Amino acid sequence: MIFGDKPKMPVSGKEKDAVRQIRHHPAELDAIDRKILGALAEDASHSYAELSKIVNLSAPAVHDRVKRLKRDGVIKGTVAVLDGCKLGRTLLTFLVIDTSSYGATRELLTFAERPEVEELHTVAGDGCVFVKVRANDTESLESFLMEIQSLEGVRSVRSYIALSTFLERGPAPGPA
Predict the structure, then answer these.
(1) Distance (Å, rounded) from C-alpha 109 to C-alpha 107?
(2) Residue pair 90/84 in contact by the 8 Å Cβ criterion
(3) Which domains does the chain show, CATH number per domain?
(4) How many angstroms separate the CA atoms of 90 and 84, rounded?
(5) pTM across the whole model
(6) What is the pLDDT of residues 82-107, one digit of tens each?
(7) How far apart are CA 125 and CA 6, in angstroms?
(8) Phi first, then psi: what are they for 25, rounded to 5°?
(9) What is the DSSP string of 54-107?
(10) Three-state SS for 130?
(11) How far apart are CA 172 and CA 114, in angstroms?
């Protein structure tokens, strides 16, 4: 069962002066919604019939709820969680990039389209952009870093290579 496609991140901001994300407001969720979300977070391939047994509702009622959760943006997409190492991308690295201008930060957002970039965040504190990169090897990571460092307005790039990963997950559907 497919509940939606992975959303594309906008990379060419329409704003002229700043990099901004739309402010999100929590959706109104009841205990049944959260139970559905928990089941889907555990295994997104559950059918509506399977979900209906989990939450004690009819399959059409579950379908309506899932449709509403998608419409409200609570369910952003359904994707297979792939093992980066088994795909040959064994070098997991986190980058903290400090920029001198919004233009440079906007330019970094174009890297969201790159297959080795798994996450890209603008952040407060020490640095401006936080990037999760999964590279094939040190040579490909070095090439990627050189590309970032060559951008006008990038002041510094700090790299943190992960040695082991003990937990990776999305948000839990429990109470806000």
Answers:
(1) 5
(2) yes
(3) 31-71 (1.10.10.10), 91-161 (3.30.70.920)
(4) 6
(5) 0.74
(6) 888 899 999 999 999 999 988 889 99
(7) 29
(8) -115, 140
(9) HHTS-HHHHHHHHHHHHHTTSS--------TTTTT--EEEEEEEEESSHHHHHH
(10) strand
(11) 27
